[in-house]
Amino acid sequence: MEILSAEFVISNAEASKCPDSNLPEYAFIGRSNVGKSSLINMLTKRKGLAMTSATPGKTMLINHFIVNDNWYLVDLPGYGYARRGKAGQEGIRTLIEDYILEREQMTNLFLLIDSRLEPQKIDMEFMEWLGENGVPFAIIFTKADKLTSGKLKDNINRYVRQLRDQWEELPPYFISSSENKLGRMDILDYIENINNS
Ligand code: GTP
Ligand code: MG
């Protein structure tokens, strides 16, 4: 799919205030600093469209971006950032969960996982929660440029093995780098296929 236009629409602190629209939306979730906002910029080829930072906890709200005037990309705050404190983390968690459960237009969630790390408990638990709630999702392994190809393959294989132990059916997965645009076309084609189905 070609990106003809991509524009920021609105930021919200409540799921119920998101745009009044029936267009399909694709949301990005994962631990703080995993690269959600950077991936949105990479996919749209718009540097600075979504705000990124080397410090975790940058995205605090639900951010809608409209693409090609007919679907949304949604940047969500990350979970699991310890320095937010317990109350802060719970607030973010509620915001994320309300959005995912209440937003009927949310067509597919992309769960981002840092390809450098071994499977993290917080991500596994989040995936279980998605399964329990019947939320359609795909996995994106991020920051692939930070690993050698051998190490990347090892890490993905290890992850997939663990997922196979837990899931009857493996969720679709992609490997990405916002530095060198790895995975861009695959992810956009995946979205296009769902939009056209
Ligand atoms: P929060 O909004 O805090 O939840 O973080 P986020 O998941 O939106 O992460 P963000 O996109 O802000 O990126 C965090 C840091 O990782 C930034 O310093 C990015 O430049 C860096 N980063 C993101 N993606 C990649 C990638 O594919 N490769 C490399 N090398 N760095 C990346
Ligand atoms: Mg962000």
TrEMBL record:
One Pfam family per UniProt: MMR_HSR1
Coiled coil region boundaries: none
Domain of life: Bacteria
Keywords: Cell cycle, Cell division, GTP-binding, Magnesium, Metal-binding, Nucleotide-binding, Septation
Claim: Kinase is one of the keywords in the record: no
Signal peptide: none
Domain EngB-type G: 22-197
Keyword Cytoplasm attributed: no
Cofactor(s) this protein requires: Mg(2+)
Biological process annotations from GO: division septum assembly
Family: Belongs to the TRAFAC class TrmE-Era-EngA-EngB-Septin-like GTPase superfamily. EngB GTPase family.
Alphabetical list of PANTHER family matching this protein: ENGB-TYPE G DOMAIN-CONTAINING PROTEIN, MSS1/TRME-RELATED GTP-BINDING PROTEIN
Function statement: Necessary for normal cell division and for the maintenance of normal septation.
Alphabetized NCBIfam families for the sequence: GTPase_YsxC
Name of the protein: Probable GTP-binding protein EngB
Organism expressing this protein natively: Bacteroides luti
